[in-house]
Fold this protein.
Amino acid sequence: MFYWLMKYVVIGPIVKAIWRPWIVGRRNIPAEGAAILASNHLSVMDSIFLPLMIDRPVSFLAKSDYFTGKGIKGWATRVFMKATGQIPIDRSGGKASEASLNTGLQVLGRDDLLGIYPEGTRSPDGKLYRGRTGLARMALEAHVPVVPVVMVDTDTMLPIGRTIPRIVRVGIVIGEPLDFSRFQGMEGDRYILRSVTDEIMVALQRLGEQEYEDVYASTVKDRLQKPAA
């Protein structure tokens, strides 16, 4: 009830009126049954606009930091995340990564839509980066299609480091579902997982025409944050 109230009465109408988001390919999202929506990640607002612009509820696995921020921005982010049904996860690795995987499989087990950012973190510069294989493992274990999703101009609206979003029209492009049933039972093969993940990233790159760099976004972020010698 809270999700629908925020989406259709409290937050949704205001956000749509201000930013006038557009969407292409909405019909590519399955009308029923479980599926993974694999999206590029340009801004914290990505997890807001996609749920607002499609008919079915979608739960994103979002880093726990989004739910613990302080001040006005932290409060606003936390409200938005809860309003759109986001699930906080610990991304510290090891057992935390396994718990995140299980959480995603639970969502898919309910025949719901699960949103994932294959890059693992926001792009630091607008490029598309190498995908993490957890997405492929979930898709193969749950036997579900993967729908590529491209967010457009959300980084212009609210880039990293900015608190107040700009009034910029943003968009969403949704591609045709990808079927990986040919790899059924091979979710334990790391080479298969990498192949599936790379296929998803190629689909995203073609759909959004982002410049692609075959390194992890987190590696680039660490490099940019490292003080000069």
Notes: The chain has a mean pLDDT of 88. The first helix runs from residue 2 to 10. The two ends are 53 Å apart (CA to CA). The first strand starts at residue 22 and ends at 24.
